[in-house]
Amino acid sequence: MVELVRNYWRVIRSPSAYFSLGFLTIGGFLAGVIFWGGFNTALEATNTEAFCVSCHEMRDNVFQELKATVHYTNASGVRASCPDCHVPHEWTHKIARKVQASKEVWGAIFGTINTREKFQEHRLTLAIHEWSRLSANDSLECRNCHSAASMDITQQGPRAAQAHETFLLTGEKTCIDCHKGIAHQLPDMSSVPGWQ
Predict the structure, then answer these.
(1) Is residue 90 part of a domain?
(2) Residue 94 placed within a domain
(3) Domain assignment present for 172
(4) Half-sphere exposure of 169 (CA within 13 A, CB side)
(5) What is the pTM of this model?
(6) What is the DSSP letter of 54?
(7) Domain range for residue 170?
(8) SS3 sequence, 38-52?
């Protein structure tokens, strides 16, 4: 085995005896294009609602809650799916989120939340992590669909209009600061200091 590795390493290090530099350059470019196409295809395949709910932890818990909200069923027929709210659209932010999500895959593999009871036990921690992430990125995923500049404050109720004028339009708060539980049930918040 060691000899096989040495032989491969020797071949890789030595100059090509059969192929020109141009052929190797073009071949490397084509291999890069094929790799990039495969990588992007795999990335997009993991960025679908079907992929998200393929594990029972998501399908049986938060997806069932989402189905009962205005983000899933509404008069306009516009539906927000899991990636719309949990994965940024911009490529660099999307890659960073996918790396963060690898921790969630680890949890699914080792059964951290594989039952409803375990999920409920960890729900507050999971929610706080997600709220913190959204707060840190100024609710980027919310702003992919909702624009403060497009809001017609006059069409909102007095409380919502005042809150949006006071906090959102001034940048003092971000969407998730007020809209926790908008697409999923809130966890038991009794242990959170200052929660009304």
Answers:
(1) yes
(2) yes
(3) yes
(4) 13
(5) 0.73
(6) T
(7) 53-178
(8) HHHHHHHHCCCHHHH
The HSE-up count of residue 55 (CA atoms within 13 Å, CB side) is 18
Residue range 3-51, pLDDT digits in tens: 888 887 777 777 777 877 788 889 899 999 999 999 989 988 988 999 9
What is the end-to-end Cα distance of the chain in Å, rounded?
A: 65
pLDDT digits (tens, 9 = 90+) for 134-187: 898 888 888 888 887 788 888 889 998 888 888 877 778 888 988 888 888 888
Total number of domains in the chain: 1
| 159 lies in some domain | yes
CA 191 to chain centroid: 27
d(C-alpha 87, C-alpha 25), whole Å? 35
Q: Any idea what the Cα angle at residue 177 is, between residues 180 and 131, rounded to 5°?
A: 60
Look at residues 140, 130, 150, 128 and name the one whose alpha carbon lies nearest to residue 175. 140
Q: Are 167 and 177 in contact (CB under 8 A)?
A: yes
Dist CA 142 CA 80 (whole Å): 10
Half-sphere exposure of 118 (CA within 13 A, CB side): 12
Least Cα distance to 54 among 105, 129, 110 occurs for: 105
